[in-house]
Each structure stands twice: as structure tokens, then as C-alpha cells.
């Protein structure tokens, strides 16, 4: 869940942490009710913004590759 812990998810959705832990567990058949998911969806942007670490890793590009892209873009627009 985007690197979010059960406590943060529970707080945003207004449910207990054990409830979220059960939903996230592969060994528990509980899936959560629609209201839980609607609340969580409404708070997802705020939750993602408040994370302490990033979830997605983006590898840096080489300077040469960026320079080539800039040169290509300027030759196309000319």
C-alpha cells in the first residue's frame, strides 16, 4: 500500500489498526467493507504526501542522454 503502515491507514480511514492488519494479512479472509475503501480513497493523496520515505524509485539519467534529448527537442522545434 505505497509504503504506508497499518497505523497510518487506520487513522486515515477512521478504523482500528487491528482491522487494517487483518485486511492486509494474507492469512485472514476479511476484505474490508466498501465504506472503509471510500474513506481511504478520499485520504490517499494526503497519506502519500505525509510518508517519511518515497515508494517509487526513479533511476537518474546520464547527462549525455539528457543533452541528446535537449538537442533533439530543439532541432525538432526549429
Describe the structure.
The protein is mainly alpha-helical and 78 residues long. It is built from four helices and no strands. The chain has helices at 6-13, 17-24, 34-49, 63-77. The model has no long low-confidence stretch (mean pLDDT 85).
Tag the structure with descriptive keywords.
elongated, 78 residues, mainly alpha, 60% helix, 4 helices
Write the layout of secondary structure elements.
Blueprint: H1 6-13, H2 17-24, H3 34-49, H4 63-77
Helix pairs in contact: 1-2, 1-3
Give a brief rundown of this model.
It contains four helices and no strands.
Mean pLDDT: 85
Order of helices and strands: HHHH
Q: Please tell me what the overall shape is.
A: elongated
Alpha-carbon distance between the termini? 45 Å
Note poorly predicted spans: none
Helical fraction: 55-70%
Instruction: Provide the β-strand percentage band.
Output: under 5%
* Largest β sheet strand count, sense and barrel closure: none
Using only C-alpha atoms, the radius of gyration works out to 20 Å
Structural class: mainly alpha
- What's the number of extended β-strand segments? 0
Number of helices: 4
Amino acid at each position: 500500500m505505497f509504503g504506508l503502515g497499518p497505523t497510518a491507514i487506520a487513522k486515515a480511514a477512521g478504523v482500528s489498526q487491528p482491522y487494517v492488519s487483518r485486511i492486509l494479512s494474507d492469512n485472514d479472509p476479511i476484505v474490508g467493507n466498501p465504506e472503509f475503501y471510500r474513506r481511504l480513497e478520499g485520504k490517499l493523496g494526503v497519506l502519500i504526501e505525509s510518508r517519511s520515505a518515497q515508494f517509487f524509485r526513479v533511476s537518474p539519467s546520464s547527462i549525455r542522454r539528457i543533452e541528446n534529448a535537449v538537442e533533439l527537442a530543439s532541432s525538432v522545434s526549429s
